[in-house]
From TrEMBL:
Residue ranges the record marks as coiled coil: none
InterPro entries assigned to the protein according to its UniProt record, in alphabetical order: METTL2/6/8-like, SAM-dependent_MTases_sf
EC number: 2.1.1.-
This protein's name: tRNA N(3)-methylcytidine methyltransferase
Keywords, comma-separated and alphabetical: Methyltransferase, Transferase
Gene Ontology molecular function: RNA methyltransferase activity; S-adenosylmethionine-dependent methyltransferase activity
GO biological process: methylation
Family, per entry: Belongs to the methyltransferase superfamily. METL family.
Pfam families reported in the protein's UniProt record: Methyltransf_23
Protein task: S-adenosyl-L-methionine-dependent methyltransferase.
Organism of origin: Erythranthe guttata (Yellow monkey flower)
CDD domains given in the database record: AdoMet_MTases (cd02440)
Length: 328
């Protein structure tokens, strides 16, 4: 067995009980500031709001510029174990990876299925350049040709019509209204609308999967509902949203000091990038409000060891799978 296979097969997600961690944290006086009421300053006008959005993108540009070396890249090899649908999907299935970063998620998806087509976006040009370099370095012509990166801040502008034009969106709604069913409860996704019905073929006809892997937490809380709705709109009926992000009481949350709070469970790192920590109810509410049906939702609780000091770190992530209904 290769080291890659060993790592994937020995990935665990239930190393400790989340409820027990919650009790420990909430009863620890040194963590009480995390639970205090918070009144964030309101953005005064649209110009200030736009400036804040630009600062978010600039912060991530600077982040990826600082971490442009190979040491920062860590391929998420557990991905296909956690989301096996990506490896067993139909031929030529289309995936939209939102917030692709340096390509750590793109590469295992492309390697896991030789005919999958991956569209990947990020708000950072630096991130996209790094992702393109990582995928190109894989030395696979097939992988390069199936990878389509593009610049996009989906939380403010939505996705380009290349993914789903107005004609396709109307077509999705008509099929839902007529009771069309292209997928069953075991997540088998059919090619509902393989090509744009418009004679100009201006779009790909929607995607079969959208992945949100450690992306939503980087947004301000007030932009999350619209961001999730954009993901819903670009999926074909029966398509899946695959979600993974920081969970409440994760080790990184507990490391933030009081001066780093931006809101309830919202924090600002020294490099000006944001981080939000989700509970299951928050993710459930966001997905439900957008129109998704919940398929899986749970905490992943993993113990890891700091190699420098031998300290055990308790990591908490939220894992979820949500489906766009095939009919109303």
């Amino acid at each position: 067995m290769s080291s890659k296979d060993w790592e994937a097969e020995n990935y665990y997600s239930k190393d400790f009980d989340w409820e027990q961690l919650r009790e420990e944290v909430e009863n620890n006086p040194s963590f009480q500031f995390h639970f205090l009421p918070f009144s964030p300053n309101q953005i005064a006008d649209q110009d200030a709001e736009e400036e804040a959005h630009q600062e978010d993108s600039q912060a991530w540009d600077q982040f990826h510029a600082r971490h442009s070396t190979g040491k920062f890249f860590k391929e998420r090899r557990y991905l296909l174990k956690e989301f096996p649908e990506l490896a067993s999907c139909e031929k030529n299935s289309k995936v939209l990876e939102v917030g692709c970063g340096n390509g750590s998620t793109a590469l295992p998806i492309l390697r896991g299925r030789e005919d999958i087509i991956l569209y990947a976006c990020d708000c950072s040009n630096e991130a996209l350049e790094r992702a393109k370099h990582i995928v190109s370095a894989a030395n696979s012509i097939s992988t390069i040709h199936r990878f389509h990166p593009f610049l996009c801040d989906f939380s403010t502008t939505g996705f380009p019509s290349l993914l789903s034009c107005n004609n396709c969106s109307r077509d999705f709604s008509q099929k839902r209204s007529s009771g069309f069913s292209g997928v069953n409860s075991s997540y088998e996704i059919n090619d509902v609308n393989p090509v744009c019905p418009d004679e100009t073929k201006c779009c790909i006809g929607g995607t079969d999967f959208v992945t949100l892997i450690f992306t939503l937490s980087a947004l301000p809380l007030d932009r999350m509902p619209k961001a999730i709705k954009h993901c819903f709109d670009v999926l074909k009926p029966g398509g899946l949203l695959l979600f993974r992000d920081y969970g409440l009481y994760d080790m990184t949350m507990l490391r933030f000091g009081p001066d780093r709070r931006m809101g309830y469970r919202e924090y600002l790192r020294p490099d000006r990038t944001r981080s939000f920590f989700f509970c299951l109810d928050t993710v459930r509410s966001l997905a439900s409000a957008a129109g998704f049906t919940e398929m899986e939702l749970e905490y992943c609780c993993v113990k890891s060891v700091n190699r420098r000091n031998g300290k055990i770190m308790k990591r908490v992530w939220v894992h979820g799978k949500f489906q766009k209904p095939t009919c109303t």
